[in-house]
Amino acid sequence: MKLLSHIRSKSRLKNGEPQAQVYEYGASNPGFAYPSSRPNPTAKLPDNALKAIFAAVCPHSQDDSYLSSEDSMPDGGCLLCDLRDLAHCAMVNRQWAGPAQDMLYHSIRIDPVHYCQLEFELCEKRKRKSHRFDRNGEQADAPAERLQLLSRTVRENQYLASQVQFLKMPYMTRESCVADLARTVQVLPNLRFIDLPEGFFSDSPSSATLKQELQVRCPDIRKMRYTAGAERSFIMLPQTRQWQNLEVLELSRLLVEPSMLTYALSSFPVLQELKLVNLPLLEDSIFQPGPQRNSFPPLAKLSLRDTPNITASGLATYLSSPVNRENLSSLTLTNTGILIESLHSILATAPYLTNLHITESVSRSLPLQPTPPPLTSR
Q: How far apart are CA 249 and CA 20, in angstroms?
């Protein structure tokens, strides 16, 4: 048999059949140059230089704001594609792996879809793959799966878990995946900000486990909100001494006495921004210093909304303290008892104020006599 096959091959060559050519790419391309053995030019770069380069690859990995996922959406670009490119950088070599991994897990953002043409292609692929559907025939939730994968990763790798400081996700994901969220924050000791479900802020039983895990495992939280129903948790803050590094606090529709409010606020030594929304019991007396009452804390940003009992006189009393007026740089007033004609008294006592936002419903014209002084800023 071998002899016959050898004869057939020779006969084909005699008949003029073309023979396959074997050649090297460099020999047939005169302009081709094989890669040299020079060292990697990035080998001498420090980690901070590499991080600056990677920040251009994935800009949202540097998002250190305390805004929710919806409010911190960057303009332009596909966030998931940028994240994929940064992950590819982490697999280039060992030198890139460390800085790239630190950026991947420093500020984590879970997005539902690609904001580019790739989403249409992936959508067609998902329709053709049966494993993308659950037992009821419904399409699987991609953000929920990404949260589960993240939870598994940080639970298996404590080093990566310690790098996580910001965790943002879509509204529906944080509302429907409370259990996965609780398992995730259980291993994030350095977490500073996280998107939480609405029930968390009102002490809803559905978020009780998540709140307990966050209180015990995440002592470095920097932003928190309390709404109607969470009065007991807010009043107990001076005793529990939770979240001593809190910088941003929002209180909405709480039924709390002014004395208890200032007592709870005194437990946050580094508080910088405070937002008070629709507090029925809030009045000017909260700014009055007294021997039996804690003073209202000095703030850099103060926002008052739907607080008709707060007047210009009370706010001027707060700004009469040198510490308060030297710290306040931003003031937001929405539907308060501060009249436009008395606004000049506030500006006169706030020399370091740089931002002033006022939203009021106009019901009457400004008085002609006496004429209000012009608004001035120092």
A: 75
